[in-house]
Amino acid sequence: MKTINLTVNGREFAGAPVEPRTQLADFLRDSLDLTGTHLGCEHGVCGACTLLIDGVPARSCITLAVACDGASVTTIEGMDDDDCMRALRAAFSREHALQCGYCTPGMLASARDVVLRMPDASEQDIRFAMSGNLCRCTGYVGIIKAIQSVIAERKAAGLGVVQNPRTELGPVGSGHARCSAAGHAGASIASRPQAVSTVKAAGTAGAAQAPAAPPAVRQSPADAGKPMTTLNQTFTVDFPRDEVWEFFGRLGEVTTCLPGASLLAPATETHVEPKLRIKVGPIVAEFEGAADVERDPANYTGTIFGSARDTRSSSATRGEIRYDLVEEKGGGATRVDVQVGFALTGSLAQFSRSSIVKDIAKRMTDAFAENLRARLSQARTGTPSDGTPAPVPQVSELNAGALVFSVLRDRIAALFRSLFGGRRG
Ligand code: FES
Ligand code: FES
């Protein structure tokens, strides 16, 4: 057990006992009875647990309480008298920006940050800035309208600009001990140590910064500095290995087996320029990039090196995919072993948490395998007389937000099954 000193909603807690593994949200809810901080995913994805640490919005479900030693924490309960929050609460009611209200404390904490930080924000800027807060009920229209109306009100009242707006986004809650009397609700947003984040803020509205250009296509992931997420996936198709190998040589067709993928230009045997459309909550990302492939026919292996970026969400990714084709069922089937290593930066990096990504990757792989089987069957039966292959049914975009929710739903169902399943019958 450790002890920490921190200020919560303006009240000092000296020598508060806490286990080193306790997350800030649990400490606030269980030890201080501040249950206005809600927990949804507990993975840093949904934003329900968002609160302010030293005036900066942070995910309290993935921030250790011990990392907040010396900090000033403001929960939704501590923002009753904050002018901006009062205006936001009224606007949320007026614009029907909540239904069940579960997401609302975190939504309001993020909305306050947007209002104070982005006084000229367009609707698109607000949607982007709020994309880290997910709501299952409202459809976001009321939320965006509420934020727009508060920005307009503040502008009309000459309150558009705050002193000392932060210029960086990224993780908070560690590497500082900046408890200050001005750090609670209503205070201007505190500055933070440099070098905490590598993601630049959008700054004032309309000035969202595009990500740095992605690295050269063939840059080795090991050279690029940021840790890679590595995933292994396997699936089997009931086609001989030579047939699968030959199909994998048609890079364009293989690429478009990915859900939401299309080609920006005709692919060659070794180079492809794809676009991948992904929907995440209220934003739609379109990653555009390029990839090169190296194939080893002797061992039936291939490696694809690629990078892509989405300017709308200021996200970029790079990585490599290695595949091995292994004969099965006496040569009648092929097992495809895929190893993916990638790094994601920008606002969509919140979906990089490994457990969520693994579930999403599994579902993407299943969709890819289905499309691959359909294409291989099509290749066997031949193309129509006009020479154009019939399109394989395919989703037009990958709905990562829906996938995240379905992953969470499946996990909750599994939890209930494990708790109560054994008592039935
Ligand atoms: Fe913290 Fe979902 S509960 S981000
Ligand atoms: Fe229900 Fe947002 S109002 S989750």
Automatic annotation (TrEMBL):
InterPro entries with a match to the protein in the record: 2Fe-2S-bd (IPR002888), 2Fe-2S-bd_dom_sf (IPR036884), 2Fe-2S_ferredoxin-like_sf (IPR036010), 2Fe-2S_ferredoxin-type (IPR001041), 2Fe2S_fd_BS (IPR006058), Beta-grasp_dom_sf (IPR012675), CO_DH_gsu (IPR010419), Diverse_Oxidoreductases (IPR051452)
For this UniProt record, give its keywords in alphabetical order, as a comma-separated list.
2Fe-2S, Iron, Iron-sulfur, Metal-binding, Oxidoreductase
Gene3D superfamilies reported for this sequence: 3.10.20.30, 3.30.530.20, [2Fe-2S]-binding domain
Q: Which residues, by range, are in coiled-coil regions?
A: none
Q: Does the keyword Iron-sulfur apply?
A: yes
Q: Does the keyword Iron-sulfur apply?
A: yes
What Pfam families does UniProt report for this protein, alphabetically?
COXG, Fer2, Fer2_2
All residue ranges annotated as the 2Fe-2S ferredoxin-type domain in the record: 2-79
- List the Gene Ontology MF annotations in alphabetical order: 2 iron, 2 sulfur cluster binding; metal ion binding; oxidoreductase activity
Name by which UniProt lists this protein = 2Fe-2S ferredoxin-type domain-containing protein
